Amino acid sequence: MLLVLGLFGFVLVNAAYAQAYESGHGALQIWNAEGRANVPPWVRIWLRIMQLTFVAGLIFVRRRVEARWAVGGFLSVFATAVLSQALADIVPLSGFIALLHVVFWSPALYLLLKRRPFVNERSAYAVWSAFMTLVILFSFVFDIPYTAIYLDHVFGLGLLS
User: Fold this and answer.
1) Radius of gyration of the chain from Cα atoms?
2) Can you say whether the dihedral through the CA atoms of 132, 134, 40, 141 is positive or negative?
3) pLDDT single digits (tens) 76-89
4) How far apart are CA 122 and CA 120, in angstroms?
5) Cα four-point dihedral sign 154, 141, 102, 49
C-alpha cells in the first residue's frame, strides 16, 4: 500500500519532466527499447544472465519459498513498471526500475541469506540459490545508488547534486 501511494506521489513530479529525459541506462535516463539498445555489451550480457536466473527459479517455485519470492519479485517489478506507466504516466527512468528491484527483490535476498540453502544443501536448488543470491547482490551494487539518485531527484532534495 505504501509503495502504491509513493508511486502516485511520484506522478506529479515525474510526469512534468517527461520531455526533459533522454533514453539510456543512467539513473535519470529513460529505460526503454532505445536505452536498452545502447547499453554496453557487458550490460546486455548481464541483463540476459539476470533474466535467465530468475526464470530458472520457476523450476523450484512449487517446493521452495525462496524461489517463490525471487520469481514473484521479478514478476512484480515488471507488472509494477508496466502498470505505473499505463495508469499513472510515470516515466520509466532507470532509477525508478532500480527502486522496484530494491523493493521487490529484497524479501527474496533476505530469505536466501537467512536460510542459506546454498550452504546447507548439495543440489541443483543449492546451485541456483547461490547464483540467485549473487545476481541480486550484484544488481544491488547498481540499484541502490540509482535508487538514491532517483529519490533525491523526484523529491527535489538536492542532496546528491
Assistant:
1) 17
2) positive
3) 999 999 999 888 88
4) 7
5) positive
